[in-house]
Hints:
By secondary structure, the protein is mainly alpha-helical.
Amino acid sequence: MKTNILPAIKLTVFCMLFFMGIYPLLMLGIAQLAPNHGKGFMVEANGKKYYENIAQKFTDDKYFWSRPSAVGYNAAGSGGSNKGPSNPDYLKDVQGRIDTFMLSNPGINKSDIPSELVTASGSGEDPNLSVQGAMVQIPRIAKARNMEEKDLKLLVEKNIEKPLLGLFGTEKVNVLKLNIELNTLNK
Length: 187
């Protein structure tokens, strides 16, 4: 028994020192080398500061809507709903989002709604949409802002972020940056 207890105590002390001291300091040091020193990327608009890498809630018809959030766009409580795709509550939430989207976007077929516009992301904080997710909203926004659809399409195309190194990920559009630029075009 003594031969097992001493190594277990040593391992416990080592793990405590490493994971509670050395590892966090190492991550803090690495973060200091990152842009903005690990504090996130800030965007300022209308005198307010926003984190561009955290989803913001947009529900007005004159804006591109963000992906739904399972945590109410609260960065302090990041997390998914943990409801499976056959869960009745989950299906009710998704159907409610589909109905809301269809009501605000007449003329769009249900099959044309990208899944990210009606399902929350795993973290509940995804600030990006697919290009299709932004493009499908153009008719609603054009009508609400009395703008040409082609101008909005050009704006979306201008804000497309390419995959990392052209390989990793997919094309995406940051909704916050897109809406801030939209406000500069038409108020």
